[in-house]
Amino acid sequence: MTTSETTRVATMDKIAALxxxxxxxxxGSDIYGGLANTWDYGPLGVELKRNVKDVWWRTFxxxxxxxxxxxxxxxxxxxxxxxxxxxxxxxxxxxxxRTCKSRFRADHxxxxxxxxxxxxxxPAEMSRIIAEAGLKCTVCGNATLTDARQFNMMFxxxxxxxxxxxxEVYLRPETAQAMFVQFKNILATGRVKVPFGIAxxxxxxxxxxxxxxxxxxxxxxxxxEIEYFVKPDEAAESFETWVAAMRDWLGSIGVKDxxxxxxxxxxxxxxxxxxxxxxxxYLFPGSMGWRELYGLANRSDYDLRxxxxxxxxxxxxxxxxxxxxxxxxxxxxxxxxxxTCLILLLDAYDEExxxxxxxxxxxxxxxxxxxRVAPYKAAVLPLLRKPELAEPAQRLFEALSGVPGxxxxxxxTGNIGKRYRRQDEIGTPFCFTVDFESLEDQxxxxxxxxxxxxxxxxxxxxxxxxxxxxx
Length: 471
Ligand code: ATP
Fold this sequence. Notes:
Elements: H1 12-22, E1 25-27, E2 39-41, H2 43-62, E3 67-69, H3 78-83, H4 86-89, E4 91-96, E5 103-105, H5 106-114, H6 123-132, E6 149-152, E7 156-159, E8 167-170, H7 176-181, H8 183-189, E9 196-205, E10 220-230, H9 235-252, E11 260-264, E12 276-284, E13 289-300, H10 302-311, E14 317-319, E15 324-326, E16 329-336, H11 337-348, E17 349-355, E18 361-367, E19 378-382, H12 387-401, E20 408-410, H13 416-425, E21 430-434, H14 436-441, E22 443-448, E23 454-458, H15 462-470
Parallel strand pairs: 3-9, 19-20, 19-21
Antiparallel strand pairs: 1-2, 4-5, 4-6, 7-8, 9-10, 10-16, 11-12, 12-13, 13-16, 14-15, 17-18, 21-22, 22-23
The chain binds adenosine-5'-triphosphate.
Adenosine-5'-triphosphate binds next to strand 10, strand 13, strand 16 and helix 11.
């Protein structure tokens, strides 16, 4: 069975429930009642997330000769954020309800209530739209909304033991700036030539006030970003190449095309640094609808120019072939790690009507994760909990643990049907079952997650067989 929009069974609630039940994602600070918009990745979630980041790094850094990586600090000099424009412009427009004190994003309220795109409009403009349409508080229903005002989304903290005399710094709201700030050092040491890119994976922090929708919108999240430096007159062409590269990436981790689209930003929606931006959007289930998954922006030479002015350092690139200096333009593909994990779960989730071991109607929940990103690549299951089966099963498990990139689970508890179902639900593509026949013919049953088909395989061939399917 394939999932299409009309038969799609995944909902955010089902995904969040499965994530908690199976140890992908837990509510943050759960035993203290949770902390809004914070979530923790559990034993399976951490593997999924690591796989996403590993595949990404292999694709864009190890797999290419023109991109190098960095791993910069979360805390940076406060002047970085003045130069980047974040102190001035990294704001969300808020409205409050005077009656019930609820707080909303003005642009989201307009979008949801009037179906009108409002991101990037001024607070005055949004206040006018809200007043003219007579929009009411969505919580208490009163027409008592304040005017929209700007709220800076950067988290602040203080370096130094005494708050009054300490230096106020920000937790970075994006990973991008370090790539500009370290541009000169990378030019000096990295043996790079334009066009080239700098990549980073790391945490970013934003004081978001709107509801999170599970791990869609977090206070603390991870980004995978590339700043790709090009000759100014080659920026438009490079942009197109990145549109395709981002789509290829989604395909490589198994995301279905039908729920992904590209949306071009309107002129009044563009960020302060961008001359062209597109969003890769994903069709989330239910009322969420199409939402931003990734962004791709042409940042021109805005950032290097700003940092050059604010720091007083010459950040120009010397082009040997052309014997001239210039500030490169920057194409920036940004991938949210958490949103990637979320859509992988949504895309993979499926339910099948079937019968259980006693012949009773039953629903099989299966995560059809691509083997590249699945937390466990395989499970080794002795048919029964017996020493004579445990011994060869354990040997197979050890052999498989040596397969590069293969995290394998060993499970001998409960009946075999239940164990298969558990592996289906956590997205394990293959199960190897050791039974009494195995003792005679040194072979095992391979059971495929997606169609539950089974075949026999010589035990000695299993590691190579698995490697071929996950590499
Ligand atoms: P949104 O409009 O959803 O707030 P944005 O336009 O502010 O997103 P960017 O600044 O373009 O997002 O950030 C780049 C990417 O980082 C996004 O495409 C998304 O994948 C991820 N991202 C941004 N904010 C969050 C967040 N609060 N929680 C999780 N991921 C986020």
